[in-house]
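Help needed: design a sequence for this.
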């Protein structure tokens, strides 16, 4: 049987010659990493369950979220991981190194056709070199560190071929924003997407990283780009060994085969709140900004830095506008220094930080405040993700040009005189909800009152914001559930033990944080039903033994807010106890039930 690219990679890492979409398999993990905010919980899971690391040579810590170590809590987390690493002989890429998903490529640890997991939800950046990468939660990573393997559901594949010639003003970020504009956040949910075409073959490694890094924002498992000869040569030089491509078979079977004309792509910007709310930059032209951010795992590469330097050279940022620049790795930082790029940044008035994730992590360079308007090269602009203000997403060239102009623009439309600020007198009040935790029981058939949260694409920052990521005690997490979801910020004060949440598509999109599951456990929520879940969130919930189920349509139940329902996890039967109406939804699959019954993956 002919296999797609993802199927070939997974088959080669399993005990099967052929794998099929929907099949659950155990795969060998070649490279396993944990970051500084997820790492401590990985270590705790190992220690508390009496587990050892099976192969330290394939195991790494990457301290990329908080490279400044500016908070004692984060410093404590990092030192906890360092101490464990010293005892076990695990390599640490410390605060002076950069973004872990970039380092594994840069250092030749991950190569085309390999498998890689990390507590970073953008581990699927590895698709840029034709490898399999996945972000996973703390329990998943701990289990893989201990066994060298992880269970995985083989995804369906989409073949996406680009026709036409790429316009000169279209950057890699524009390519992915055009894709988000077409497919949104959930059309490709759960798919492995393969990219083909003459213009795709020409993409540099840095451009491929930009595109693959936003697979998560499209809901895709991964965006795989078959490696060119230049990519293979780079990976062979960095790894020091001869490599073989893993490609799709010529007659591979895809769930969807699509074509897009890249010649019709336009410069785009994502409006605040949703990466997929991407529009022609003309629609937001001259929107006044307070700040710009250049960096993140999407656009912190040396090519990005060179593009920014070209726009900034001989210019200054607009009065009152702050430009923050963070290279992705120390190698990129040093190359900027060598080429005089750092001088250009500083002469333009920019703040340059040490290598790392920056704006995506609370408390780091790139966060903004209430009322602040930022244009960013990051991959996410969910409400609250990069601070309390508004965040537009754009290419490095657009961000640099905008900070010079004082408003959103392109490099060819920078005014001679930048726009200046006018006082508004606006202020903003911030409140924090509080809730004590309650215990939760886990029967296979149970009843509970429903919360109908009818919204698509509820991301993990809406569920459990990144400013609370230092919390490792599950008993403290419940009070923050949904406190960043508009219209539901008081959820934790209203929730009762035994409640059931029913929501819409792509619930749990975004980050790999386990807390987005555990906060509901802490509140005593019994289950969550959704049309679909973010891929990492689904794994985290299943591995935590927390009931999640999917449905196609439940309108026949005629549910109203706080109706009481009955659920059977084994059969998928759900009943509205107010009306007596019953329907069937998707029941637990076997692996899910096995993990649930033993109260979690590591129990």
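Sure. Designed sequence:
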């Amino acid at each position: 049987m002919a296999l797609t690219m993802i199927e070939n990679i997974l088959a080669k890492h399993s005990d099967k010659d052929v794998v099929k979409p929907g099949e659950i398999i155990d795969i060998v993990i070649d490279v396993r990493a944990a970051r500084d905010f997820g790492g401590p919980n990985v270590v705790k899971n190992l220690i508390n369950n009496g587990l050892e690391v099976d192969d330290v040579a394939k195991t790494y810590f990457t301290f990329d979220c908080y490279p400044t170590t500016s908070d004692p809590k984060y410093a404590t987390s990092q030192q906890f991981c360092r101490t464990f690493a010293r005892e076990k002989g695990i390599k640490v890429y410390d605060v002076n190194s950069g973004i872990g998903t970039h380092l594994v490529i840069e250092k030749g640890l991950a190569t085309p056709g390999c498998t890689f997991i990390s507590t970073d939800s953008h581990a699927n950046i590895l698709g840029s070199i034709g490898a399999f990468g996945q972000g996973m939660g703390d329990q998943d990573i701990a289990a893989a560190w201990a066994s060298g393997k992880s269970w995985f559901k083989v995804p369906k594949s989409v073949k996406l071929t680009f026709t036409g010639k790429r316009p000169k003003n279209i950057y890699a970020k524009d390519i992915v924003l055009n894709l988000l504009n077409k497919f949104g956040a959930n059309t490709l949910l759960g798919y492995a997407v393969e990219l083909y075409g003459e213009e795709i073959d020409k993409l540099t490694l840095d451009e491929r990283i930009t595109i693959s890094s936003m697979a998560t924002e499209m809901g895709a498992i991964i965006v795989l780009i078959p490696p060119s000869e230049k990519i293979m040569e780079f990976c062979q030089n960095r790894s020091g060994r001869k490599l073989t491509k893993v490609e799709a078979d010529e007659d591979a079977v895809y769930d969807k085969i699509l074509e897009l004309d890249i010649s019709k792509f336009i410069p785009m910007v994502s409006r605040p709140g949703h990466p997929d709310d991407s529009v022609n930059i003309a629609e937001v032209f001259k929107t006044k900004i307070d700040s710009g951010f250049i960096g993140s795992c999407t656009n912190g590469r040396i090519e990005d830095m060179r593009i920014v330097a070209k726009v900034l050279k001989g210019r200054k940022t607009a009065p009152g506008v702050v430009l923050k620049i963070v290279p992705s790795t120390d190698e990129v930082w040093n190359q900027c220094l060598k080429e005089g790029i750092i001088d250009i940044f500083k002469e333009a008035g920019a703040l340059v930080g040490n290598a790392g994730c920056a704006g995506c992590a609370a408390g780091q360079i790139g966060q903004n405040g209430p009322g602040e308007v930022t244009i960013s090269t990051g991959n996410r602009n969910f409400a609250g993700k990069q601070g309390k203000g508004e965040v537009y997403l754009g290419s490095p060239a657009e961000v640099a040009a905008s900070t010079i102009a004082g408003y959103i623009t392109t490099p060819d439309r920078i005014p001679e005189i930048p726009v200046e600020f006018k006082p508004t007198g606006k202020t903003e009040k911030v409140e924090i909800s509080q809730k004590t935790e309650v215990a939760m029981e886990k029967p296979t058939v149970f009843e509970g009152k429903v919360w109908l949260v009818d919204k698509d694409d509820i991301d993990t920052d809406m569920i459990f914001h990144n400013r609370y990521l230092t919390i490792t005690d599950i008993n403290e997490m419940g009070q923050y559930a949904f406190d960043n979801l508009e219209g539901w910020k008081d959820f934790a004060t209203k929730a009762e033990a035994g409640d059931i949440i029913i929501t819409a598509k792509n619930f749990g999109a975004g980050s790999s944080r386990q807390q987005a599951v555990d906060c509901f456990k802490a509140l005593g929520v019994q289950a969550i039903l959704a049309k679909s879940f973010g891929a990492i969130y689904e794994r985290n919930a299943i591995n935590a033994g927390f009931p999640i189920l999917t449905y196609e349509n439940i309108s026949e139940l005629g549910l109203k807010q706080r109706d009481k329902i009955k659920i059977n996890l084994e059969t998928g039967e759900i009943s509205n106890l107010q009306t007596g109406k019953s329907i069937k939804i998707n029941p637990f699959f076997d692996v899910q039930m096995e993990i649930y019954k033993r109260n979690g993956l590591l129990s």
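The CA atoms of residues 214 and 364 lie 21 Å apart.
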